[in-house]
């Protein structure tokens, strides 16, 4: 959008530099928030689901206990909580280095620039890898999960209608309160954009870790991503009109 003719965001090079900074900052904060908050919600929910299922099975099925073979180390892993992903820790380290000018210059401009270049290459490779994982989860969603159509419609309505409208109120309130500069429409646009994106692909990763709700998550991810190009285009147009 920065390179489009007639862009309301000023010079393309300045717009692109600030845009990358805004997007990187929001993704860094979002990743830390996800692995500290959403991860634990799924973990607790999966435990409750497993516990309730075990109680029902014990009540309905009356069999004599049998001696079971000892579990191998790979089987024990399924009974324990999967380890917390290193994504949160890695993002914190990167955020710490990126916000301190001497460390950032040491990795990017000086003798250790090879580390920075390697990080960029790994990051570029991570994007298509994550897309492949997302595609595999969406393929599972095509098979269905028994989730009701009204539930999917409700999630889509909240995701692409009520949440963007709530975002407009929050961002406009931040501008009126002085937390966001009123003349920086590009920053406001990026903030509004956060309320229009489909659910994070990392949610599928967490459901796979805990083996809970994978099919339901795949169906939700499928339809939200199918509708994302349409809703994102309409909402971006609305935001540009609103900020202009």
From TrEMBL:
<protein>
    <recommendedName>
        <fullName>PIN-like protein</fullName>
    </recommendedName>
</protein>
<keyword id="KW-0812">Transmembrane</keyword>
<feature type="transmembrane region" description="Helical">
    <location>
        <begin position="222"/>
        <end position="243"/>
    </location>
</feature>
<keyword id="KW-0927">Auxin signaling pathway</keyword>
<feature type="transmembrane region" description="Helical">
    <location>
        <begin position="185"/>
        <end position="210"/>
    </location>
</feature>
<dbReference type="GO" id="GO:0005789">
    <property type="term" value="C:endoplasmic reticulum membrane"/>
</dbReference>
<feature type="transmembrane region" description="Helical">
    <location>
        <begin position="160"/>
        <end position="179"/>
    </location>
</feature>
<dbReference type="InterPro" id="IPR004776">
    <property type="entry name" value="Mem_transp_PIN-like"/>
</dbReference>
<dbReference type="GO" id="GO:0009734">
    <property type="term" value="P:auxin-activated signaling pathway"/>
</dbReference>
<keyword id="KW-1133">Transmembrane helix</keyword>
<feature type="transmembrane region" description="Helical">
    <location>
        <begin position="20"/>
        <end position="37"/>
    </location>
</feature>
<dbReference type="InterPro" id="IPR045033">
    <property type="entry name" value="PILS1/3/4/5/7"/>
</dbReference>
<dbReference type="GO" id="GO:0080162">
    <property type="term" value="P:endoplasmic reticulum to cytosol auxin transport"/>
</dbReference>
<keyword id="KW-0256">Endoplasmic reticulum</keyword>
<keyword id="KW-0472">Membrane</keyword>
<keyword id="KW-0813">Transport</keyword>
<comment type="similarity">
    <text>Belongs to the auxin efflux carrier (TC 2.A.69.2) family.</text>
</comment>
<comment type="function">
    <text>Involved in cellular auxin homeostasis by regulating auxin metabolism. Regulates intracellular auxin accumulation at the endoplasmic reticulum and thus auxin availability for nuclear auxin signaling.</text>
</comment>
<dbReference type="Pfam" id="PF03547">
    <property type="entry name" value="Mem_trans"/>
</dbReference>
């Amino acid at each position: 959008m920065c390179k489009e003719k007639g862009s309301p965001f000023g010079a393309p090079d300045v717009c692109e530099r600030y845009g990358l900074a805004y997007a990187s900052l929001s993704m860094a904060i979002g990743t830390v928030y996800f692995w500290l908050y959403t991860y634990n919600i799924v973990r607790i929910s999966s435990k409750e689901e497993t516990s309730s299922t075990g109680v029902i099975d014990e009540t309905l099925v009356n069999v004599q206990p049998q001696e079971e073979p000892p579990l191998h180390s790979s089987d024990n892993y399924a009974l324990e909580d999967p380890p917390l992903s290193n994504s949160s820790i890695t993002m914190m380290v990167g955020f710490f280095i990126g916000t301190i000018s001497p460390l950032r210059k040491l990795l990017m401009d000086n003798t250790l620039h090879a580390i920075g270049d390697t990080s960029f290459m790994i990051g570029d490779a991570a994007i298509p890898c994550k897309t492949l994982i997302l595609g595999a989860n969406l393929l599972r969603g095509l098979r269905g999960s028994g989730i009701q159509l009204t539930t999917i419609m409700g999630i889509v309505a909240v995701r692409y209608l009520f949440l963007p409208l709530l975002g407009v109120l929050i961002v406009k309130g931040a501008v009126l309160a002085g937390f966001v500069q009123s003349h920086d429409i590009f920053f406001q646009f990026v903030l509004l954009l956060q309320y229009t994106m489909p659910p994070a692909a990392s949610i599928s990763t967490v459901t796979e870790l805990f083996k809970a709700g994978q099919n339901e998550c795949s169906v939700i991810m499928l339809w939200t991503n199918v509708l994302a190009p349409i809703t994102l285009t309409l909402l971006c147009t609305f935001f540009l009109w609103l900020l202009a």
